[in-house]
Amino acid sequence: MKKxxxxxxxxxxxxxxxxxxxxxxxxxxxxxxxxxxxxxxVSRNFVKHGFDILHPRYDDISNIPSGLDNPNGYxxxxxxxxxxxxxxxxxxxxxxxxxxxxxxxxxxxxxxxTVFIYLLVKKYSNSTAASFSAAFYAFLPYNIYxxxxxxxxxxxxxxxxxGIYFFDKWLEKYDxxxxxxxxxxxxxxxxxxxxxxxxPYAIFFTLPMIYLAITKFKINLFNNWQLxxxxxxxxxxxxxxxxxxxxxxxxxxxxxxxFNGNNIRFKGAFFYWLFAERIGxxxxxxxxLAILSSGVIYIAQKKKLSKNLFLLSFFxxxxxxxxxxxxxxxxxxxxxxxxxxxxxILLGLGCSFLLNLPKExxxxxxxIAILLISVVxxxxxxWYYIRDFFNINNPSIISAGLAVDQLTPPDSKxxxxxxxxxxxxxxxxxxxRPGWPSFQxxxxxxxxKGADYLIFANPTPDDQKYSKEYKLVKSTQDYIIFDLxxx
Length: 487
Known about the structure:
This protein has helices at residues 3-19, 33-49, 81-93, 98-124, 127-139, 141-146, 153-172, 181-198, 207-217, 225-245, 257-260, 268-283, 288-300, 305-324, 326-331, 340-355, 364-386, 396-407, 426-431, 443-448; strands spanning 414-418, 435-436, 453-457, 471-475, 479-483. Helix 4 (98-124) packs antiparallel against helix 5 (127-139), helix 4 runs parallel beside helix 7 (153-172) and helix 14 runs antiparallel to helix 16. 59% of the residues lie in helices and 5% in strands. It contains 20 helices and 5 strands. It folds into 2 domains: 3-388, no CATH class; 396-483.
């Protein structure tokens, strides 16, 4: 890599790191806080109770996620690689809070993805497209917010891109007799297996590796033992984890609905929410569509199509993912974290296209002007919609959680109720106690199940009725706490 290119990449990474510090010390009470709280809760329980990675636990012991009572608080979704990184970093360094270490793991993952995007685009296109791709991944407002949340998805994106990059490096050295080529093979294998454990959806983003293998081995593809070895070892950890999970059905949230639970796939609402509302408006701020379209044109050029099929495979992977996990993607905007590398690559190619329009048809300044206007408006409008994601919309749950942590024993179980958001575990997480985020059963039954305290955030006058039967611990305009063991 030339010195100038390295400097540009380092500036992008430094800028990407700085902007992701926005809201770094925020409590987990912003956008999609419920999913962040569930993730961080597993890490916090590792810190409290030890690293039992085969039995990850969180604070929600209700029957809401799985439909079954979950008295042990089992949390069987992704294998807890992300939680291991978050919790172990907290215990080793202890410089920041457990939540801040979660943000740092995500920030590092996001920056690592930026590097892999740069290296892949530089090899298969040019350094200009690579720089722009990396810059878009680092600075799109959507990616700034989701590049510092406490979720495993950005880390999955990093390991997935890393698996592709090192797989390509292995194929590049395949004919070499040097044993060092196997280092790339092993690193790629470990990263791909990790990506699948972090999110099984990583399977969609193995298409670029499939394309590389077909291009390299052609008709001998199915006679290559190394590929079979890679496939088996990459998938086996996920397969074993899924088998192990079935022993704990109470800890497995319902997930079948993510595919097409509301029959929305390929209907008008599907296209509107994903391609207009999310990609067009939220991620690209409308004007970025001009650059994205230019990227598609760049790939589709007749003279470059065969060369660009590798980069096109990222885009196809994303379309497959959006189509198969239809309801999940429509329901949650954080599901689009996984398609961001593909969008960044197309945007980078679009910039390269606009900067190199045919001189015989366009004045050079035309492409530059279109690019500048599109970038400025895209980032501005996207930020307009993303900025509220950082807001703490219910500060009362923070003060209520601190009060519970100070006024109740550490081993107590609580019922944490936020009116209008029953079932949301964000408030429960703030209490630093296991318990129930809703009245899944009548109160006497929850007491029989072990509930010690009842807490309301933003209490209503009607909530005062419990003081007739249970001891009032503390009451403010932000919260009210009842001791269910004292009458």
